[in-house]
Amino acid sequence: MNETLVLTPERILEVTEDVLRRYGLAKATVVDVARALDVSHGSVYRHFPSKASLREAVAKRWLDRVNAPLQKIAEGAGPAPARLEHWLRTMIAIKHKKVCDDPEMFETYLTLAQEACKVVKAHKDGLVDQIAHILSDGVEQKVFEVADLKASARALFDATSRFHHPAHAEEWNDPALPARIDTVMALLLRGLEAPRKR
C-alpha cells in the first residue's frame, strides 16, 4: 500500500465515482475505494468519516457539476427573457444528456441524491435562487412583472419539473417532447411579461 500518497478529498471522490461505475452502488464499499487508491480504508475515513458522508459528497459533486453551467447563465448579462429560456433549456438538456449518455450511472446518482436529502434541498434552493436572480434582472429591465421573485422562481422550477426531474426520465424519449417544451416555455415567458405602456 502506498500510504505516502497525498490524498485529497477530490481524488477520493474521483476514484469513488470510478468504483461506483465498476461495481454499482449496492456492491461498492469504502474498502474498494481504498484498494483502488492503494491506501488503507482508514486513510479514506480520515477525509470522510463514514460511508454515508462519502456517498453524500459524491452526490454533491455530481450536483455541483450540473449547477456550474446554470450559474454562469444566471450571472450573465443580456435580456432576461432570453437568459431565462436559455437557463431552463440548459437544465433540461443537462439532465437528458446524463440519462442518455450513462443511464446506469444516472440511476446510481439518483439513488445517492435521494439518500442525501439535505444536499439535494440545498441544490434545488440554489437553482431557484438563480431563476429569481434572472427574474430580478427582468424586473429591472422592465420586461418582467413579478410581485414575489422567490415564489415565482419556485413556480417556474415546478412548472418545468416534468422535463428535468429524474422521476420523469422514462418520458423523455417521447418524440412530442420538444414541442411540449416549446409550448410550456412560450406560456411561462408570456405570463411574466410586463404590460406594455400605450
**Major sheet attributes:** none
Strand content: under 5%
The N- and C-terminal alpha carbons lie at a distance of: 76 Å
The number of domains is 2
The amount of helix comes to over 70%
> In the CATH hierarchy, what is the class of the largest domain?
Mainly Alpha
Shape: elongated
Gyration radius over CA: 20 Å
Per DSSP, the total helix count is: 10
Query: Can you name the CATH architecture of the largest domain?
Result: Orthogonal Bundle
**Secondary-structure element sequence?**
HHHHHHHHHH
Summing up helix and strand content along with how strands pair, one would put the structural category as mainly alpha
Q: What is the CATH third-level topology name of the largest domain?
A: Tetracycline Repressor, domain 2
Number of strands: 0
Mean pLDDT: 90
CATH superfamily of the largest domain: Tetracycline Repressor, domain 2
